Amino acid sequence: FDTEKVLAEFGLDRVHPGTYTDSLGWGSAESRPVIEARCPADGELVGRVAASNAGDYELIVAAAVETQKKWRMVPAPRRGEFVRRIGQLIEENLDSLAAVVSLDTGKSTMEAKGELREAIDMSTLAAGQARMMYGFTQQSQRAEHRMYDQWLPLGVVGLISAYNFPAAVWAQNGFLSAIAGNTVIWKPSPKVPLTAIAVQKLVNKAAAELGCEGVFSLFIPEDNAVAERLIADTRVAMISFTGSTTVGRRVSDIVGSTLGRRYQLECSGNNGCIVDETADLELAAKALTFGVVGTTGQRCTSTRRVIAHVSIADELVELMKKSFDQITIGDPREKDTVVGPLIDEQAVADYQRVLAGAERDGATVVYGGKVIERPGLYVEPAIVTGVEPHFEVAQSETFVPIVSVLTYDALDEAIEIHNGVAQGLASGIHSTNLTNIETFLSARGSDCGIVRINMGTTGADVGAAFGGEKETGGGRTAGSDAWKGFMRRQSVCVNWGGTSAWDSRINL
Ligand code: UN1
């Protein structure tokens, strides 16, 4: 694609303000530090964004509080039309928006479009959900009383997203927030400011068409002190956070200390997949490949551990090597590229550190493992064997394309290894044995939020609730009844008969 043309289309060919709120429009770029957006493919400077400051934040939050007072009274199905329109605009601008995602993250066009497809799917899901935010009716024990629960908006939601999915995570959390009658302040990762600005422009177009201005606002501070204002602000009813466990813990500490505010966390994963002796190994190798190399290992759902039955482990590794060989690594702007570079130099250093540590612990790198000699931040996906459960490489969320292969003899042992990490996001088993599969799905099986049978750990379907347990943080977004996390439940009892409880002296 033509980088200059794409940037100009979204007004990103000049220093662009990182602040948007309806009361202000695009904020000022004056006397603010400039965030440099460099394409991870070659380090080229592709955009400059003026970081939001504390004063910008104050204007945003004040406007979000005011707008929410109106938005909460808009019928939910109309709120749904707004998010559906945003989804349509993403679809209409798919090619150019995908190009911005690639420039920001280094993702291939295929993956960038996949991410935007997820955002579009999320818009249709949320639009439909807006008509189906049901509460139950209950049977009152009092005569001539009606009892039910209803779901009401929370207020302002602060949405903090990571660099790896600059549009989809916003859509997952933001669309549910909006249909719920909340306004949304988005703080994206400053590593990917261009996507956030481009998305906000499409939002503004939909808002102008439908009279929904001010529901979504944007702030891109450079430093964490400004970002923390959002987390600590009691005017913000909920923080939805996607990112590392370290920062997630801070969010839970700060938000949790003010009762009545909510948080929903989607933090680190350390996703494992068991492959038993009955598995279709060709299918498993393919599923594991994309799980490991997709988004250059930078998904919270990336497959980091393969727990293989000792009798098939060698054969599986050979098939994985063959399958890894099929992956085209390269510049995300080239048509055939499947896997792009890592996000920044720190990630490359992490990759080298994790591999060196694994080897020091006694593991063997049997595939890949080198930084690719070319401009840009490219690394070879790596397969590491001889890993024991306690090795650092198996215990931490590495966030680079490295997979550890561990072996087991009995399924119970495999499950113990699988669950023996701090994180609990995605998991899987490859098997054709019903008992093994159902054991993994039972109470003594996987302890994760997501389980995939004969599939990869990545690429969650928006229809399901997305999130995980343990250090992953316990939150859920996307489908199923995740919308409830963005609303408050109210239990209602109506006396329609005119008899007071005092008169009957019951159930006072
Ligand atoms: C993330 O990686 O932070 O299911 C979330 C998947 C993607 C994950 C997005 N939707 O693999």
Automatic annotation (TrEMBL):
It comes from the Bacteria. Keywords: NAD, Oxidoreductase. Gene3D superfamilies: Aldehyde Dehydrogenase, Chain A, domain 1 (3.40.605.10), Aldehyde Dehydrogenase, Chain A, domain 2 (3.40.309.10). The keyword NAD applies. Residues 26-492 form the Aldehyde dehydrogenase domain. Pfam families: Aldedh (PF00171). InterPro entries: Ald_DH/histidinol_DH (IPR016161), Ald_DH_C (IPR016163), Ald_DH_N (IPR016162), Aldehyde_DH_dom (IPR015590), ALDH7A1-like (IPR044638). PANTHER family: ALPHA-AMINOADIPIC SEMIALDEHYDE DEHYDROGENASE. This is Aldehyde dehydrogenase family protein. It comes from Streptomyces laculatispora.
